[in-house]
C-alpha cells in the first residue's frame, strides 16, 4: 500500500479494531493501524461490510486518511475514564484503549486497541499526533517526495512523472493542457484569447524583486510604464499593485487591487491607475470600484459559519433535530454568505456586460475575497471557465498565482489563526451555478468534491503554499540542505494536482464529466474530433443602455448604490433619481430581461438567489453521514440515466459513421472502448436498471465513518463552539 515515493512507515500496531457502527461491534474490522510520513493507513483482510462500491484513489487506500486532512486526534482510556487531545510534542500518561480521528472533510474515524499491545498503541497515537502536526513547512510530505525524485530521477510516483511547479502547462482529465500562469507566454496567450489589446504582460517582478506575494508575470495597462509601476508599488499593501484578471469582448476589464496605504499619495495614485485602465478601454469608459471589505462577509465570519455548519452536519442526529434543522442551517449563515458572493458578483457582471465599464475589485491585501469574486465573475461571463481545463486555469490564475494563502487558510501546519475556507466557499458557489444550469458546465459535482479533497493531500504543490515566491524560497532552501542541484530551475518541481492520473485511472476520471453538458468544447461526435469553444462576440448578449454618470473624475464607487436585500437589483440614492427613469432602473431591467429569455449556455449565466434556490451542497457535506445516505437515490440516479442516454446517442453516431464509411466492425469496437461516459449503455434501447451500489453519497461511502454524536454518547458541540476538547468526561462510558 505504500507505493508513493518517499513514503516510510513511522509506526504501526497490530490487532486493532476499526469501528464501523456506533451501536454494535459486530461489523468491526480487524487489522493493522499504520502511521507513515504521508497518511494513516488501516490494513485489513476483512471485506468492508455493508459497502457495495468503493471509488479508488491511487494514492490512498480505502481506509487511509492523509495527514494534512486530520483536524484533531483524541485518545481515550475508558477504564480510567480519561481522554486527551494530542498535540504534536505531548506525552501520553495513560495507555489508550481508543483513538478517534476527526478529519477536515467532516469524517470521524475510530479505532479500538482492546487486543493490541498497550505500549505499541500509545506509540502509534503519539506518532500520528507528531507527523500530522508538523512545525515547519518543509516537513510536509511533498518535500520528502520531491527530494526522492531529485536524488532518484528514474523513480516516479505510481510510475508517473510529477508535473507542474516549474513552468509550462500540465495535462488534465481531458488530455488538454492546463496553463499554470507561471510563464510570460501563458499570460500573453490569455490576453490574446480575451482580445485585451490595450494590456501587456509585465515582467517587472521577475525574481520577485518588487512584491513577494505577486507572481513574476502579470498583466497591466499598456499605458503604464515599468518605471511608474515600481514607483507606485511602494504605496500598496504588500506592494500588490493593480493586476488584470480578464477582458470582456466589449473591452471592459476586470482588475484586482490591494488598498493604498500611503494616505497622502492615495488620491493621486488612485487617479493615475484609473486613468490608465480607462485608456485601455476602447470606449474610454469609466472605472467602477468595488470595495469588497465593505460589501462581503469577512474571512472571520466565513470561518465562524463553517464551524457552525460542521457542528450541524457532524454533530446533530437527524432524527432528533429534524424539525429545527432548516432554522439551524440558516443560523450558520453559510448559505447567506454564498448568496452574498453570488449576488455581488452578478451585480459586477451587470456593470461589465451592460454598462460597458471596467471593474476594479479592491480589498485590503487583494488576495482573499477578490480571489473568490474575480473567479465567480469570470465563471458567469466566460464559458471557457465552465470547461474542465478552463476552470483549472482559472484556479491557477486567480488563486494559486495571485497569492491566495493556501498554507494559512487551509491550516496545513495546524497552528494558524488565519484559517478560513474561502476556497471551499468558491467551489460551493460554483456548485450552486452548476445545480441551476447543469448543461452549462463540462464538469460534475463529483469533480468539485474531489478537487476540494485534493487540497488536503500534501503530495501536491498546487495548494500547499501562500504564494509562488514561498514555493521558490522554501524549496530552494530545502534543495541546498539536501544537496540537490537545481540548475536553471526556480525552486523544486512539485507534483501538480491537475495531473489527475496521479490519483485516478482514466476510467474513474470519466466521473469528472457532466453528461448533461452541451458545449462547444464537449467531445464532439462529428468525425471523432474534439472541438473547442471559439470565443466570439455574438455569444454575449451585450446591450448598451448608456454608461453611468462620471463620478469623482471617472471613478464610480459602489457605495453610491444601495443594494436591496436578497435581490440582484441595486437601488440608486435619491440624488441619482434626477437621472432618467430608464437609467436609474437599468440594472433592475437588465436582470428582469435576462431571466425572461432562454439561457444561452455559451453566454452569460446569472444566479437565482431567492431563499429556496440557494441549496446545501449535500454530496460534499453529507457524504460521510450514514443517516443522510439515500440508497438508490440522490442526484446520481439522474446522472446515471443521462449518462446512458448520452452514451446511446454516441453509439448511434458511431453506427451512422460506420454505415456511411462502410468501416469494419473492429473499428467500431475500439471506438466503443473510448466512451466518454462512466456509466455505459449495453447497446441501444438499454433498459437495465440503476446499479445496486448507487446512493446519494456516490462515489463515496459513509461506511466506517462515524459522523454523528452517538460515539460513546459524547457531544462534539463543546469543541465546535470553541472549546479545546471534543469529548466530555461526564458521558464517557465503556461501550463494550
UniProtKB/TrEMBL annotation:
<dbReference type="InterPro" id="IPR011993">
    <property type="entry name" value="PH-like_dom_sf"/>
</dbReference>
<dbReference type="InterPro" id="IPR030573">
    <property type="entry name" value="MTMR10_PTP"/>
</dbReference>
<feature type="domain" description="Myotubularin phosphatase">
    <location>
        <begin position="181"/>
        <end position="621"/>
    </location>
</feature>
<dbReference type="GO" id="GO:0016020">
    <property type="term" value="C:membrane"/>
</dbReference>
<dbReference type="Pfam" id="PF06602">
    <property type="entry name" value="Myotub-related"/>
</dbReference>
<comment type="similarity">
    <text>Belongs to the protein-tyrosine phosphatase family. Non-receptor class myotubularin subfamily.</text>
</comment>
<dbReference type="InterPro" id="IPR022587">
    <property type="entry name" value="MTMR12-like_C"/>
</dbReference>
<dbReference type="InterPro" id="IPR030564">
    <property type="entry name" value="Myotubularin"/>
</dbReference>
<dbReference type="InterPro" id="IPR029021">
    <property type="entry name" value="Prot-tyrosine_phosphatase-like"/>
</dbReference>
<dbReference type="GO" id="GO:0046856">
    <property type="term" value="P:phosphatidylinositol dephosphorylation"/>
</dbReference>
<dbReference type="InterPro" id="IPR010569">
    <property type="entry name" value="Myotubularin-like_Pase_dom"/>
</dbReference>
<dbReference type="Pfam" id="PF12578">
    <property type="entry name" value="3-PAP"/>
</dbReference>
<keyword id="KW-0597">Phosphoprotein</keyword>
<protein>
    <recommendedName>
        <fullName>Myotubularin-related protein 10</fullName>
    </recommendedName>
</protein>
<dbReference type="GO" id="GO:0005737">
    <property type="term" value="C:cytoplasm"/>
</dbReference>
